[in-house]
Amino acid sequence: MQGLMVVGHIAVDRIITEGGSRVQLGGPPTYAAATARLLGLGIDAVTKIGGDLPWEFRARLGMLGLKPIVAEGCETTRFVLDYRGGRRRLSVEAVCESIRPDEVGDASGDAVMLTPIIGEVPRETALRLRGADILALDPQGYLRALNPDGSMVLRPWLDLELLSAIDVYKSTLRELRLITGVEEPLSALRRLHGIGIEEAIATLGDEGAILSLGDEAYWIPAYRVEAVDPTGAGDVYLAAYLIERLRGGEPT
Question: Each residue of 27-38: pLDDT tens digit?
Answer without folding.
Answer: 999 999 999 999
